[in-house]
Amino acid sequence: MPTRSESHQQKNRPGQQGPGRIAKILPFIILSAAVIFTALALYFRLRPNTFPTEPDTENDLARLSAESYESALLSMHSTESFKEEDFSYFRGLKTVVTSHSLRDTEELSQYLNCILNSKNTVSNLYFCLDPELLWDSVDQKADKWEKALSRNFYAYIKEYPQISFEVLLPYPCIDYWLQLKEKDFDTLLILYHNLVNELSVFPNVKIFFPGCEEWLTVNPDNYTNPPFDANEVITNKIFLYTFCDSNYQITPSNEDFFWNSLRQTVAREKSSPTHYPDLSDWCFVFFGDSVLGNFPGSFSIPGYVSGLSGALVYNYAVGGTSAASRFEGKDFSETFSSFIAENITASESGNTFTPHGIVIDDLEDRKLCFIFNYGFNDYFSGVPVKNPEDPYDETSFQGSLRTCISVLQTFLPDAHYIIMSPTHTMLFGNGLEITSPKGDVLSAYVEAGRELAAEMDLYFLDNYNHSAVTEETLETYLPDGTHPNEAGRLVLAKELMYFIEKELAGAQTLP
Fold it and tell me: What is the mean pLDDT of the chain?
């Protein structure tokens, strides 16, 4: 609220009351002024917004004033990857996702006034607040920080206890933290700590911080505009984990875990940076089941390989499939001919891999490698491991792989081929039970893959016997017993990259 900076003194005029009279009525004057100032403060708090606005702000305020909604998202960073339909589908809340990146608490207050002055009954308000930007907006002054947040944010939280205020703290890529000097890093964590502690006194507030998660911060491909703006797939996952499942919720009682995890990661990466192989001269084509196929984009196993090594990747894995043919249109052996027809192009100089029928110039100077990761669904459904009478029997695990890989080698003889075994599983007695009269234990399918690789002179990556995913670490990396979580996919991607660097480093570029 604007205040006057000057006082105006007047001389006594004829008939004006003397000093004694003024002294007597002064308390009443002060009381009246207090009432007036209180009324003005309330007016400026509740009046329609009249601040100068930018086009995106004008659009936001127009929507917040005119539309019907139950919640809204306000952010100090880009909201482009947040989708209103996610709030509707997963939270059952009609939500306005604003487009303007807030610069300070004054703008935050402006938006809140608009929301709370609308005719909507709002149940949830979501915020992406950046402590560093808040600190800079008050000239890095502690007293101004407290006043600005108290007046322009905390007052609303206190006044509207029926509304849930949910605050998502930034989750920038690891390079953001690594470039900070130690003093600046410590200062920033103090700001995060202060904001968490100040907000936590309100029972209608939740705060989330996923920014110490390695699976999120190490992959540059998780971000569209580093260091802060994550891509759509990652933003959707963060949305589900925080605003839906309340994972990564941070409070004064557990925040030491978050800050210590972040400190340890930053200290480790500064003193001994993780080595990621340079595979930028490779193209990898993946086939497999849900371990590869159920996780799209940059936080899948192929996504990590691409983001951390620079390789070009194509993922043709499909959840629920096995190598062996079990029923039409579902499994690898049944759909392989379609892949050949749609992705291999013949020319006078030979066949070329043309993903989705498109000639990719960037493929010319890259080495091509096909990776096959099957075994779980073959074991779970109890298909035969092999058919001694017919080594190309597509209803058996080994026979189908032999058939399909042989066909690919015919078309692309200069490509490289890796059979990647399944990991351990918690299901069916940790893979020791036989699920059908025709099947075998899980390790038998692993050994059949090893045997086929030796027979056909292929590479074999043994994730069953030589991986960080062991029987002892299953709950850490495969919480449902089969599918790797984010940490598990990162581990498996690293192991694949290191395997390729070691075993295929001398492979020649395709002509």
Answer: 89
